[in-house]
Amino acid sequence: MKYSVISIDLAKNVFQLCAFNEKREIVLNKKVKRANLINALRQFPASLVVMEACYSSNPWGRRIMKLGHTVKCIPAFAVKPFLVGNKNDANDAIAIAEASFRPTIRFVEIKTLEQQDIQSLQRIRERMIKIRTGDINQLRGLMAEYGEVVATTPGALQKAIPGILEDASNELTFVARKFIRRLSENIEQISKQIQEVDTEINALIGTKEEYQLLRSVPGVGPIVAATVMASVHDVNVFKNGRQFAAWIGLTPSQYASGETSRLGKITKRGNQSMRKMLIHGARTVLNWCDKKNDNLSKWLQAIKQRMHGCKSIVAFANKLARIIWAVLAHKTPFNASKACA
Q: Where are the domains of the chain?
């Protein structure tokens, strides 16, 4: 028997396996234990296997693809509208399959091990930065209580700490000097760990062709390039740059009914980390565009004059997403002289 789709509702120990025939009729819908899932899928001919995108979908997807199946993941928000009846594993598996039948559904690609390595290092780096920022804020606040006000940047703070601790004329007590030194050492240690993670990320992506192409785009540094490479396996799954920007969530939301059509704020759908990094990169380029005369800088100068600063940053982030798609899709480095001509 041929199957049009096999859907799996992933869980910790007991999964739900649902199979549809070519007429989109349910052939089976049963529970399968974790240890028996691969053996159960071996009984089916090569088919389309769909799952909800979650924390364990990537390793399961790679294992299932080795059996000869085609594996695709569906975002959770796209599955929920198709849930009919009470929420249980059987109905969830049917909803996943129903969502996969939609002609406009956007599937999530299964990540490779290398992509997961890059993404894991990025998540660790983001967490370290949050911890370091918390320690810096706490240290500055506590020192201000003793009358010592210092700069906000990590480098300036670390330079000021030794002089403050050695100054016997200030109001710092023995206890205060002790916890200031402890927090300062924590900040310094975390900064070193962040540098080590950056080195590991650069070692993973530095020799890749995609990395060299991305670095030719203004506003795309090592961290932004790593975010794109970890999130997008094949940019050609998007028809054009606008689809890529919409997938990231950088296109305006739309309300249309009859003759009424209004555009609102950006949708903020999709990959939050990539959207944040592109906005950071766009802000950096906009800060320096007034000192350049290329076509892209002239275009940025024009939108800065007619838009609010934040709005112009998001507009250029949208433009960056489209440039990145074009660079990766055509495998051609960015040419500033041809941009915005």
A: 3-100, 113-205, 209-330
Residues 319 and 220: beta-carbon distance below 8 Å: no
For residue 309, the model assigns a pLDDT of 85
DSSP states of 200-260: HHHHHHTT-HHHHHHHTSTT--HHHHHHHHHH-S-GGGSSSHHHHHHHHT-SEEEEEETTE
Q: Are 226 and 206 in contact (CB under 8 A)?
A: no
Distance between CA 89 and CA 12 in Å, rounded? 12
Q: What is the DSSP string of 296-308?
A: HHHHHHHHHHHS-
d(CA 97, CA 62): 19
φ, ψ (nearest 5 deg) of residue 271: -80, 110
**Helix 309-330 crosses helix 241-248 at what angle (to 10 degrees)?**
130
Query: So what's the pLDDT on residue 43?
Result: 92
Residues 6+ apart with CB under 8 A from 154: 132, 136, 187, 191
**Which CATH code for domain 3-100?**
3.30.420.40
Q: Can you list the positions of beta strands (E) in the chain?
A: 3-9, 14-21, 26-33, 48-52, 70-74, 252-257, 260-266
Q: What is the mean pLDDT of residues 191-199?
A: 95
Pairing of strands 26-33, 48-52: unpaired
- pLDDT (tens digit per residue) in 231-251: 998 899 899 999 999 999 999
The radius of gyration computed from the CA coordinates of the chain, to the nearest angstrom, equals 25
On whether the CB atoms of residues 163 and 150 are closer than 8 A, the answer is: no
Q: Enter the pTM of the model.
A: 0.86
For residues 284 and 244, the answer to whether their CB atoms sit within 8 Å is no
DSSP state of 54: -
